[in-house]
Amino acid sequence: MNSFVHKTLVVQLQAGDTDRFSVLAHLSYDAADPFAVTIVFSHDGRVLARWQLDREMLADGLRRPVGLGDVRIRPVARGMWQELRLKFLGDARPDGGRHHALVFGWAPGFAAFLRETHEVVPPGREEVRVDDFLADVIAGG
C-alpha cells in the first residue's frame, strides 16, 4: 500500500485587502508523519508559502470553525458552493496588526484528499515512534 498521498487543488488566495486570485495548493500526506498535512501554495512555478497543518484540525475545519493560533479554518457556504476558508497569520506589522492571508478552496476537494489519507492511516490508528523521534532530535534534525 502507498504511504504517501498527494493532491493539487486550485484555490483562491486573498492577501490583505486585495482581490482573490487563483493559486495552486499542493496537499501532501506521508504516513511516516501521520498527524500532519503539508500544503505548498504556488503560482507561476514559484512557491509562495509552505504550511504544515494538523490532519485532524483540517478535517474538523470542514465541519466547524477551528484554530486559535496562526491557522484558523472554517467551512463557508456560498449558495450551492461549499468552500473551506483557511486563514494564515504571519509576522507582526509596525501598526501592531499581523500580516495574514486567506485561502478559499472547494471543500469537497479537501474532503476527498482527507479520505485518501484515512485509507492510508485511519484516524485513531496513527503511531508515534518516540525512539525514532528522540534520535532525530538528539541528532539535530
Outline the structure in words.
Helices cover 21% and strands 48% of the residues. By secondary structure, the chain is α+β, with helices and mostly antiparallel strands. It has a 7-stranded antiparallel beta sheet. The model has no long low-confidence stretch (mean pLDDT 88). The chain has 3 helices and 7 strands. The protein has helices at residues 55-61, 107-120, 130-138, and strands at 4-15, 21-30, 36-43, 46-54, 71-78, 81-92, 98-106.
Topology:
Elements: E1 4-15, E2 21-30, E3 36-43, E4 46-54, H1 55-61, E5 71-78, E6 81-92, E7 98-106, H2 107-120, H3 130-138
Antiparallel strand pairs: 1-2, 1-7, 2-3, 3-4, 5-6, 6-7
In short:
This protein is an alpha+beta fold and 141 residues long. Helices cover 21% and strands 48% of the residues.
- Indicate the low-confidence ranges by residue numbers: none
Number of helices: 3
Tell me, briefly, the overall form.
globular
Mind summarizing the main beta sheet?
A: 7 strands, antiparallel
Strand order of the largest sheet: 4-3-2-1-7-6-5
The fraction of residues in strands falls at over 45%
CA gyration radius, whole angstroms:
16 Å
By DSSP, the count of extended strands is 7
Query: On the 0-100 scale, what is the average pLDDT?
Result: 88
Distance between the termini: 27 Å
List SSEs in N-to-C order: EEEEHEEEHH
Class computed from helices, strands and strand pairing = alpha+beta
Binned, the helix content reads: 10-25%
